[in-house]
Amino acid sequence: MDVQILSVERVKPSSPTPNHLRNYKLCLLDQLFPVAYAPIVFFYSDTNYRVLDKISKLKKSLSETLSRFFPLAGTIVDDDLSIDCDDQGASFTTAKVDCRLNDYLGNPNLELIAKFLPCELTTTGLLLPVTNVQASVFECGGIAIGVCISHKILDGTALSTFLKSWASVANSRSSAEEVIRFVFEGPAIASLKKMANGLSGPGPVTRVGAVSGFIWKCAIAAFEERFGSKKPSLLTHVHSLGNLAWIAKAKCTTTKSAAGEEEDRGIPFFVDEVRKSMRTIITSWCNLGLYDVDFGWGKPVWVTSVDASILVDMRYGDGIEAWVTLDEQQMDILENNQEIATFAFLNPCPLLDIGDVRLF
Question: Which of 21, 73, 240, 343 has its CA 20 to 30 A from that of 96?
Answer without folding.
Answer: 73
